Amino acid sequence: MYRKLEGMKGVILAAGKGTRLYPITRHIAKPLLPLANLPTMHYAIGRLKEMGIHDVCIVVGENEEQIRNAIGDGSTLGIKASYVRQTDPHGLAHAVGFAKEFVGEDSFCLYLGDAMYSQSLAPFAELFRTSGCANLDLVKWVEDPSRFGVANLDGSRIVKLVEKPQEPESNYAMAGLYFFGPQIWAVLPDLKPSARGEYEITDAIQMLIDRGETVLAGIYEGDWFDTGTLDSFLETSSHLVGKGQKVAESAHVVAGLGHSVVIGDGSHVSCDLIEDSVVLPGAHVRVSGRVRRCILAGRVESEHSLEDQIRWNDSAQ
User: Fold this and answer.
1) What is the DSSP code string of 237-261?
2) What is the distance of C-alpha 304 from the center of its chain?
3) What confidence tens digit (pLDDT) does each residue in 203-246 have?
4) Strand pairing partners for 139?
5) Strands 224-226 and 55-60, how do they pair?
6) What is the mean pLDDT of residues 260-269?
7) With bands split at pLDDT 50, 70 and 90, how would you rate the model's confidence at 6?
8) What CATH number was assigned to the domain covering residues 9-226?
């Protein structure tokens, strides 16, 4: 079977609250947080366009107004953007169900809105297209797979999925990108909540396997980042800017600049030294000391050095 990609659509999951990046994500939707001074979601849209996907549905939640205002109809980004609201978050498979009307009988690429990839994903779209499989999932070999959904492989086929196993049978972690044919709609109505009360995408894929559908692994060898925590957000930022700095022209900085620093438009920064940190656009930062491994927004003042902190104004909650 040879599947045409012309009708393939994109679905970006962007409804999460980003609680691990509070307090900043109380004010700025996580998919819009800037990485190297570009909103995180712009990177997802760019990867979808590389695959020839321009018709994109964004699954939103409480952040709907912010994301609609930022992305609009998508024309300035070279896509046609649609929106659907996940009324109450109950897992990835639950979120996918809200995009059914948008997708129709087309194939689609499911992209987690806070995932970042260092290499083009177009080869995996082509593999999905030519294979005729019901589902192809991006997987990556990792040292500690117990933190992820884990795929057991038989050649190129996924034969079993286990969510965060205590004793993994494989080192291949599910890496946040999925291609589906219309077969997925037949299994979602039969899906039951997991032990944590969520409708898991791994359970839906396992149902495809159990029903005899072909599910393939796309082995990804580039860098893959989840930007949902302080550590991972700063790691992603460092990957994008290297050991250097990215300082907006309109920023005013009176500070020594260390490695991996991003300072946004219109921000003012005064401190002894700033390194491995991100200052969001419009922030006013005055610190008597050093700033290290921080994400700062709003008006932040401190008589002491700041390290390993996420700050909105003077709140770290």
Assistant:
1) HHHHHTTSEEE-TT-EEEEEE-SSE
2) 33
3) 999 999 999 999 999 999 999 998 889 999 999 999 999 889 99
4) 174, 219
5) unpaired
6) 97
7) low
8) 3.90.550.10
